[in-house]
Every structure is written in C-alpha cells, then in structure tokens.
C-alpha cells in the first residue's frame, strides 16, 4: 500500500494548517521557497498522472482514502486505454476544480496581505512533482535566494497557453484544460 503524506494532513502529523474545510486543507510549506508558501490539497487523494489530468469521481470527505489509493494504482495500470475513453468526462471537472483551488489560494493570500502582483499559484507537472497527490503551490513573493528555478513559469506563444516547463500556473492550467488539452512539460 502506497503511503501518501498529503492524505494524512493534520496537526498531529506535524502540519501547520492555515485553513481547511471538508474538501480542502491548506498548510504552510515546510521548506518555503518564497516569503509566503502554502500548499493547498484536496482531502481526497487525487493522483496526478504523467500529464496533469484529474480523476472524475466527485469529491467526498467520507470515502475511504485507502481504497482510493488502491484504485489509483489500478487506474494507472489502465492509464493508456482509459485516459482516452474518459478524456471527455474529465475536462469539465478539471477546470472547475483548478479554478476553485485558485480562488481559495487567492483568498488566503488576500488575508495575508500579499499584493496581487506578487503572487504565484501553480502546479508541478509529473514526474517533477515530489508528492503524487494534487497540490497547488500558493506563493507570496519574493522568492528566497536560489529557490525560484523550480517554479519558473513559461509563457504561452502562438495558440499555446504554456511554453516548455515543468511548472504551470493555475490560470494556464485551467485554460488548457478548458480547451481540451493535456498539460505536460511540452507547450500546451
Ligand atoms: Zn494522497
Ligand atoms: Zn509541487
């Protein structure tokens, strides 16, 4: 059974929780890369595939997380076939989920007095994510010395919302998902 640290976010497990509701929990990053650095995660285990696509099941705080991890392993085994079959169903939930996470992150930064022009909210793209449980990096800049490289945003060009890079802004992600694209390291 895979152990997932973000399935077990609680103060007793050593997390410094800043905000939570029944679906999401936000906590201070243990090794902050920026002046303000929060991780926002769904309570339900939502794994990230090689490309950023999120599963279709509605979020539920009661559902068994262990069972979800087993299911995810099985899903990964069927990844190549199923991702195409499910692609259409996946999209609408994906962008709305990304947008609601972004809204929560922005609200947290509002409350902390972080100026809007000094914010970065985004996701790492597998395999460059260190924890395979969907997590939004919510950052109030400036970055600490030498810590920015992991979070470099690559601007879109032509019809791409994002250029080459392993970090995607929440807004770039939502727009790519909206237009039916899979988010990866390459431009999308
Ligand atoms: Zn998890
Ligand atoms: Zn990350």
TrEMBL record:
Annotated GO MF terms: hydrolase activity; nucleotide binding
InterPro entries per the UniProt record, alphabetical: HIT-like_sf
Pfam families from the UniProt entry: DcpS_C
Coiled-coil portions: none
SUPFAM superfamilies noted in UniProt: HIT-like (SSF54197)
Gene3D superfamilies membership: HIT-like
Keyword terms of this UniProt record: Hydrolase, Nucleotide-binding
Domain of life, per lineage: Eukaryota
Protein name: Uncharacterized protein
